[in-house]
Amino acid sequence: MLDVTSSTGLDEKVMIAASLHLPDGMTKRPSQLVFAIHGGGYHRGYWDPGFADESYSFAHWFTEQGKAVLTIDMLGMGQSSKPEPEDKLSGTIIAAAHADALRQVVSRWDGPVSVTGMGHSMGGMMIIAQAAAFPEMDRVAVLGWANEPMILGDTDVASLQADLIPSGYLATPRLPMRKLFYWDDVPLDLIEADEANASTTPATLGKNALTPGIVHDASASISVPVLVVQSEIDTSPAPDKELAYFSASPSVELQILKSAAHCQNFAGTRETHWSQLNDWIDRTS
User: Fold this and answer.
1) pLDDT one-digit tens code per residue, 59-116
2) Class of the domain covering 2-283
3) How far apart are alpha carbons 40 and 121 in whole angstroms?
4) Rounded to two decimals, what is the model's pTM?
5) SS3 content of the chain, % helix, strand, coil (to 5)
6) In sequence order, which residues have a C-beta less than 8 Å from that of residue 263 and are 6 or more positions away?
7) What residue ranges do the domains of the chain occupy?
8) β-strand partners of 36
């Protein structure tokens, strides 16, 4: 648990829940750190699901490649603090809390470290916001987040906006999301376990994620290499148009993961996805 109170400006103690995954048998910490932020309705277990076997663990796969993985519960989600009333939160405050958490871990590193910021879905929105406001990451991977007007499976932006509460912590409507979240080969028992482990999401982040263009300016200010990942079934109607939003980046790449839906870590092709991510990190280091 990382105390990020001072970075938020809130009038209560604010904690970020985090897990640091390290390679087995290393005498010093690796020179590569992946900082991973989950999406809406999730928590840091997305990257290391306790209900599934090890082959579904993003964190385990990357530590096997000699990299460290830092996962957090976004502020207001999972085991992190849920400030009350919720509407005193903002995207700016949440990004500052996440940056503080990362900074605290990096400050304890026993040597130089290159940081890859990685966000999935709503976490993609937040990693963009963080990278723009706190340019402390060496590269940024945006997984399953669309700057283009989003497509959302069996629901749509207008329907989700209509269901939003003015303030508070809301459950993600998971059944309408199944078509978007999971490819046909994902076992039903895994889907049900994933849904049973869902987190609530701050209404603030829900509103932000459904606001067209919410991180367009932030995307345009990122000046490190950027990777955009979309699955065959995902949120962007035009993945090739996503690259232009990162106009200040010296290098923008697009990866399309075949035979996968939005939640890439549960796809049958997840190891292909992880390998492609790993290759990109190594090429841009």
Assistant:
1) 999 999 999 999 999 999 999 999 999 999 999 999 999 999 999 999 999 899 999 9
2) alpha beta
3) 7
4) 0.95
5) 40, 20, 45
6) 46, 120, 144, 181, 182, 194
7) 2-283
8) 71, 118
